[in-house]
Automatic annotation (TrEMBL), chains A, B, C:
It holds the Pfam family P2X_receptor. It comes from Leptonychotes weddellii. One of its GO terms (cellular component) is plasma membrane. The keyword Transmembrane helix applies. This is P2X purinoceptor. Belongs to the P2X receptor family. The keyword Lipid biosynthesis does not apply. Glycans are attached at N140. Functional P2XRs are organized as homomeric and heteromeric trimers. The gene is P2RX4. One of its GO terms (biological process) is response to ATP. It is a multi-pass membrane protein. It catalyses: K(+)(in) = K(+)(out); Ca(2+)(in) = Ca(2+)(out); Na(+)(in) = Na(+)(out).
Amino acid sequence: MWVFVWEKGYQETDSVVSSVTTKAKGVTVTNTSTLGFRVWDVADYVIPAQEENSLFIMTNMIITMNQTQGFCPELPDKTTVCKSDANCVAGSSGTHSNGIATGRCVLFNGTVKTCEVAAWCPVEDDSHMPKPAFLKAAENFTLLVKNNIWYPKFNFSKRNILPNITTTYLKSCTYDAVTDPFCPIFRLGKIVESAGHSFQDMAIEGGIMGIQINWDCNLDRTSSLCLPSYSFRRLDTRDVDHNVSPGYNFRFAKYYSHLTGAEHRTLIKAYGIRFDIIVFGKVAWLPPPLGALVQTQASGLARDKGPSPHLLSAHALYHDFFFFPCHLEAGKFDIIPTMINVGSGLALLGVATVLCDVIVFYCMKKRYYYREKKYKYVEDYEQGLGGEMDQ
Amino acid sequence: MWVFVWEKGYQETDSVVSSVTTKAKGVTVTNTSTLGFRVWDVADYVIPAQEENSLFIMTNMIITMNQTQGFCPELPDKTTVCKSDANCVAGSSGTHSNGIATGRCVLFNGTVKTCEVAAWCPVEDDSHMPKPAFLKAAENFTLLVKNNIWYPKFNFSKRNILPNITTTYLKSCTYDAVTDPFCPIFRLGKIVESAGHSFQDMAIEGGIMGIQINWDCNLDRTSSLCLPSYSFRRLDTRDVDHNVSPGYNFRFAKYYSHLTGAEHRTLIKAYGIRFDIIVFGKVAWLPPPLGALVQTQASGLARDKGPSPHLLSAHALYHDFFFFPCHLEAGKFDIIPTMINVGSGLALLGVATVLCDVIVFYCMKKRYYYREKKYKYVEDYEQGLGGEMDQ
Amino acid sequence: MWVFVWEKGYQETDSVVSSVTTKAKGVTVTNTSTLGFRVWDVADYVIPAQEENSLFIMTNMIITMNQTQGFCPELPDKTTVCKSDANCVAGSSGTHSNGIATGRCVLFNGTVKTCEVAAWCPVEDDSHMPKPAFLKAAENFTLLVKNNIWYPKFNFSKRNILPNITTTYLKSCTYDAVTDPFCPIFRLGKIVESAGHSFQDMAIEGGIMGIQINWDCNLDRTSSLCLPSYSFRRLDTRDVDHNVSPGYNFRFAKYYSHLTGAEHRTLIKAYGIRFDIIVFGKVAWLPPPLGALVQTQASGLARDKGPSPHLLSAHALYHDFFFFPCHLEAGKFDIIPTMINVGSGLALLGVATVLCDVIVFYCMKKRYYYREKKYKYVEDYEQGLGGEMDQ
């Protein structure tokens, strides 16, 4: 029976325009020999200041202060350690070089000599990564995610800050799957833990977290049933057994100038967590009488189809026009897929009858009784034919 | 009849690679007590300097100059106002704090005492938002949008700067739906008004504008019919009755250093409009004879399917291979969906004939005349058999 | 025969979550009269420091140093050249102005007078673009692309740094379609050449390069067959005959402050290449016995369907449940599309038999022999009936 619902119905997909904005909050202090006592706020650890669908929060860093253009010894590794200038090729530069070799072999420290390079000096030494993470307190920072969706076809739009959310609630709430499932403010530590990872581990080398917003909408009479649900997943898979080039980091610099005009910079190798907000969704539309029945199947189907990032896929299920001709002028009825589905369905029905006959003929007892019934009309037909000949 | 067109044809969707670049232009001056006379150009109000599919233009700001690391009283609110140090917990920091409490209770101004914090001092006071917007002149800034699309399957590519657009025209034109529908340079004020909003209102708190580029392409013989059309929509829905956390803003800082090495910064809370460029599209392909007939349906169908952001969906309608075998080697023919559609179609046809018979036999008057015709071939067949036996 | 495979199978599409991170490496030196000897590293030429799916590398630039807020003559063009103050409208500003006209007409150089503007002075003169590109050495920079994919439906995830890639290999390798097809480190020059363009030409005016990662996955027993393949394409089409507003560039500034607090900046008009990483993909699933057979068709089909940027489309081909009922509880079986496809197929079969009969009866010689065979079963049947009556 339920198959008929599908024969009669057809499915169309809608695409949705989604916009996302994010805002991080949180302050922490660090006290190190190099930097001394220092406060870190949003403007310090969010790089760049704004992005379209993601937000990077620096959790760990290797800072190289007061770099100036000049000449200095390269970091020692098997390619740069030298005994004499003969070992250094002027103008050469490897993939991992910090500068262009001058051809001189100079003292790196008391014992080791390396090739001199023209570079921002002193060159960065990123051999030792801070553990625990330099900004480990980022675990308690919060992230506000604002998401607006719009279904062009249904001209239906909604935001994840639901109508019943007040300013006071938004000032104080934090997302919790159980107690506050609709609060769009997330504690960073909780996001990572919900994905089954340790924030402090992730904070050291950095990584990518996906914040998935699932819109599961039923666009019948009331739109209040269209609600977001949040899920979290670490997007940069870490196979512990194959830990090649893990985490996420990049370099940026803050440039300063002396009155003399000589420029110097502070180079920062920033490790951190990038939060990519991915909006999923589906919308089901059904005339209320059928809604209850097909809803379960619709959700099941949609689960099969899986979510589509950046692109909400909306499934509208219609009863066909024989039952709801009103849909025809509703402009939401599409004949093509209906034809295809109905066609397939009818073919199946044909087969079904054939199968029935086969089963009945060869598998059932007392099959001749059945046969009689089945071919009774043939006799009628002969009679009809006979009657005709009489004319 | 028209159903046959659909039986014979089949539909496949293509995905398209799109690239977008933007460039803003415009200069304005402000004259305030804090900043004095100041000129603002692109490098000042576009943050960050470049993004993949969007552009942020700062329209309003709260600027806090010469912040340095230190200790200062927190902004007064119900959690920070204090009578004595007893009210301030050292090391504490709320979600909305500007720093970490030192535990001291100090004078904020002549009358109010608040908890002291370690922070970038002085702390930002964003309680008063400039009205009208600080950079209200942004209404007259212009935005050049360059968009290239490429359909891999048809290996068809085009840009929104059409071949007939000259450098001189591009230097002077501004988009207008009526007079200049193909000029890719948009006046910001016009974009917002086209979406039915007031630029000056939006400029105060900021927001997200969607610039939709619709490519409606008919890839028959001539590709000159493949033209972009532009539409505008505000993506961050504002329900005036539920105005919780409206607009769009973020914080960033410009860092300076004294010769002494002491760092200071200018913190800017930037309100502004982010323009997200969303590329939609569809492409219809038909052998010319059928083009005119099906085009209407195709467009209708495409309208049903709705646009897909970030992902152009191309619908190619083909006449089936019985009619255009050439398509087979054209490499654009796909047998699977054709089979499925033709199959469904045939099932429908079969049912149709059956229905006809039923109707004719049992509903029509003079049905036996009809039956004669229908079974006439049987007699022919017998004759044929007889004739054969004669051999 | 092969049609049956398709009758039995059905196709469903999956969407995939993909995350991309990039890291550029490379250093170069320049020696110009304005800048003197200068080293350029990642923090200097990557703007902004990180993006979600793309990376911009500056290859050419027009630098204007030590700009300060003030008044200076505008660049001469047909709108700004003046003879007297009468030619300059105070407060006016054109689309391409660098500032707001003061109304005075001043000397631009010994011979030319232009309208004075309030602007960042001196105004940028971008009339002469450096040729060859200022950072032409960027051709030898390298780009590491890390990509993780995840199919929600199959809960299958993989990264483009394959398990057999060692840290040592990753330190030294460079992508080559033939020798190192799985090395995720690309030489910029090679990327552009692979797309059929000249890096040095592109470096001058800038442009957009697409790095396409195609995941062609066969999720049968072993997942080691799921491998990425890389392809490159220039996304900003250049029609040499219609070279209006070519390339890609934007402006940004580095801000400095004197002890006096007076701010000055260095304005950079950055030309460069933006590398957009676009992830394509498909996944085929088949029970091994059929895998070999259908794989070819699957790949063919997927090729027809074309890639979908930002959104991997996964095709799972199943043997139907009559043959592999185990799939039913595997939770990967979807009854709806199977019904539709099987339905269509059966319709086709029905037609096929009819066609055969028609052909045989009316086109073949010795058709009565055939007829005998065709109706032989009837006699068998009668016999069976007879035998039954004996009971």
